[in-house]
C-alpha cells in the first residue's frame, strides 16, 4: 500500500534535489513572473538604500564607529540579496543560507561592540559602571533564573562578554565549511534529520553556539539601555532582534513544516524546496522593510554622552591640590617638619 501511495506522487514531490533555475522559471505563470520582478526590484532598492547609507556613515560618522555601523546596517540588505539569489537559483539555497548566517554571526559581535562604543569606548564604559554589576539573569540562557547574583563589571568580565560573541564569528564559518565538505561527500542533507545524519548534530552545535553568543548582547543591552536611551538604542536593538528572529526562527519553522509535508509540493518544487522558496520570498519583503527602518534609526544625529562624573571629579581634584599655610609658608599635601 505504501508503495502504491508513493507511486501516485508526482516525480518532483519525491525528488530530493531542488529544480534547476531554467526549470523553475519555465514553470512560472504571468503572476509568478510579476512576483519575481517585484521581489528582485525590492532587493535592488534595499541594496541602493544601504549603499547610500554607507556613504553617509563614511562621511558623517567618526572613524571609530564607521565599520561597526556599516556592518550592522548591511545585515538586512545582505540577507535580502542572498534570499534573492536563492529564489532565482533554488539549488544554491544551502550556500546562500550559509552566507547569510555567517554574515549575521559577525553582526552579533558588531552590535555588542557598538553598544560599548556608544558609551565612549571600553575605558569610559568601565569608568561609568565601575560600581555596578551585570545582570546575567537575561535571555536567552538565564531569563528564568532570577536568583542569580550580579557580576561585577571589570575588564575581565567585559572580555568574557566579547569572547562570547566572537566565538560565534569564528565557529560559524568552521561549521559551514564542515557542512559543505560533508555535503560534497553525500553525508550532509538539510532534509535528513536522523541521528545517523550529520545535519542534526551540526544544527545542534550551531544552536548552542548561537545561544551563547546572544547572551552577552542581552546582558549588555540591559546594562546600557537607560544610558543610551538618548541614542535610540531600544529601536536599534528591536531591529536587530527582528532580523535575528526572521532569519533564524522563522526559517527553521518553515523548514520543519516543509519536511513534514504540511507545505505541499508544487511541481517542479518538492515540499522542502518549496519551503525554502517561500522563505526566500518572505525574507526579501521583510528585509526590505527593515532596511528602510534602519535608515531612519541610524541616520539621525545624536549628541555625545557627557563624560562620567567620577572622571570630572578626579580631574577637578588633580587641578586643585590642597595647600596648608604654616608659619607663613605654603605647603602642598604635607606638614612641614614631617
From TrEMBL:
Q: What is its main location?
A: membrane
SMART domains (alphabetical): Solute_trans_a
Q: Which GO terms describe its cellular component?
A: membrane
InterPro entries in UniProt: Ostalpha/TMEM184C
Transmembrane feature ranges? 34-56, 68-89, 95-113, 159-183, 198-217, 237-258, 278-298
Q: Does the keyword Membrane apply?
A: yes
The protein's location, in the record's own words, is: Membrane
Which Pfam families does this UniProt record tie to the protein? Solute_trans_a (PF03619)
Q: Please report the record's description of how this protein sits within the membrane.
A: Multi-pass membrane protein
What's in the keyword line of the UniProt record?
Membrane, Transmembrane, Transmembrane helix
Q: What is this protein called?
A: Organic solute transporter subunit alpha
Q: Highest lineage ranks of the organism?
A: Eukaryota, Metazoa, Chordata, Craniata, Vertebrata
Amino acid at each position: 500500500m505504501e508503495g502504491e501511495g508513493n507511486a501516485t506522487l508526482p516525480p518532483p514531490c519525491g525528488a530530493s534535489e531542488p529544480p534547476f533555475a531554467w526549470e523553475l522559471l519555465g514553470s512560472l505563470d504571468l503572476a509568478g513572473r510579476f512576483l519575481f520582478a517585484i521581489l528582485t526590484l525590492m532587493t535592488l532598492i534595499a541594496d541602493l538604500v544601504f549603499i547610500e547609507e554607507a556613504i553617509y556613515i563614511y562621511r558623517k560618522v567618526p572613524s571609530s564607529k564607521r565599520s561597526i555601523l556599516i556592518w550592522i546596517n548591511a545585515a538586512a540588505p545582505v540577507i535580502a540579496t542572498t534570499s534573492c539569489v536563492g529564489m532565482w537559483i533554488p539549488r544554491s539555497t544551502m550556500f546562500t543560507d550559509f552566507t547569510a548566517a555567517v554574515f549575521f554571526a559577525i553582526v552579533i559581535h558588531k552590535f555588542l561592540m557598538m553598544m560599548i562604543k556608544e558609551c565612549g569606548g571600553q575605558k569610559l564604559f568601565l569608568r561609568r559602571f565601575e560600581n555596578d554589576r551585570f545582570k546575567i539573569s537575561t535571555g536567552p540562557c538565564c531569563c528564568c533564573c532570577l536568583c542569580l547574583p550580579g557580576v561585577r563589571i571589570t575588564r575581565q568580565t567585559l572580555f568574557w562578554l566579547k569572547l562570547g560573541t566572537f566565538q560565534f564569528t569564528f565557529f560559524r564559518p568552521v561549521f559551514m565549511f564542515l557542512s559543505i565538505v560533508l555535503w560534497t561527500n553525500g553525508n550532509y542533507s538539510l532534509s535528513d534529520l536522523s541521528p545517523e545524519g550529520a545535519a542534526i548534530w551540526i544544527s545542534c552545535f550551531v544552536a548552542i553556539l548561537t545561544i551563547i553568543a546572544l547572551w552577552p548582547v542581552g546582558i549588555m543591552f540591559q546594562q546600557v539601555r537607560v544610558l543610551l536611551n538618548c541614542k535610540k538604542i531600544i529601536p536599534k536593538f528591536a531591529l536587530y532582534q527582528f532580523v535575528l528572529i526572521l532569519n533564524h526562527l522563522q526559517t527553521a519553522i518553515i523548514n520543519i513544516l516543509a519536511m513534514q509535508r504540511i507545505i505541499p509540493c508544487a511541481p517542479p518544487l518538492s515540499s522542502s524546496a518549496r519551503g525554502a522558496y517561500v522563505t526566500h520570498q518572505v525574507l526579501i519583503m521583510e528585509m526590505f522593510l527593515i532596511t528602510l527602518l534602519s535608515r531612519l534609526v541610524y541616520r539621525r544625529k545624536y549628541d555625545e554622552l557627557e563624560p562620567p562624573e567620577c572622571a570630572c571629579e578626579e580631574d577637578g581634584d588633580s587641578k586643585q591640590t590642597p595647600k596648608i599655610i604654616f608659619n607663613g609658608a605654603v605647603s602642598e599635601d604635607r606638614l612641614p617638619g614631617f
